[in-house]
Design a protein that fits this description.
The chain has about 210 residues and is an alpha/beta fold. The chain has 7 helices and 9 strands. The mean pLDDT is about 95. It catalyses: 6-carboxy-5,6,7,8-tetrahydropterin + H(+) = 7-carboxy-7-carbaguanine + NH4(+).
Length: about 210
Amino acid sequence: MITKEKQTLVDEGIMLPLMEAFYTIQGEGFHKGTAAYFIRIGGCDVGCHWCDVKESWNADLHPPTAIGEIIENAVEYSKTVVVTGGEPLTWNMDPLTQLLKKQGCQIHIETSGAYKLTGIWDWICLSPKKIKLPTEEIYEVANELKVIVFNAHDLKFAEEQADKVNKDCILYLQPEWSKRDKMIPLIVEYVMKNPRWKVSLQTHKYLNIP
């Protein structure tokens, strides 16, 4: 049971429900193949049925951790830090990113965009979900749009989302892992007919790394 004092610190972003943190190779999107330190924050109510980290959903399962401790561990490994979840924007990201910036870090976020954008970001990967759409503000600043393709209808959803992002946003279609054998041919054909899109794969799973 979290104390009232700790809950206040979590609400302020001074502590965060840390699920895990690890140094690995970015597997997806624009920065795939590059080394980065990942900070996975617990808590998400978007609830994608195909989510591969459902254990991140319940923030109460993950201990509130001081952001100073999180940052100290991160900078031992890398100046490139990726904040992911769960849904990290459930929480106030301002304190974490301000301190990371003081350490000279490049900070990326992977988000559904379903909550108010907080924090200072060098790269925003927006991965919108049908069940809880992004806020309007994040479309204007997203650096990449990554739509997960679980079925053919997701291509229509992808186009709807692409019409909302800024003109410099890079567009990716990524097969949902369990459906990859069926969805990859569909995505390849679609991208060849619609070359403003690129293919993203979860290459870390092919490499058998986190």
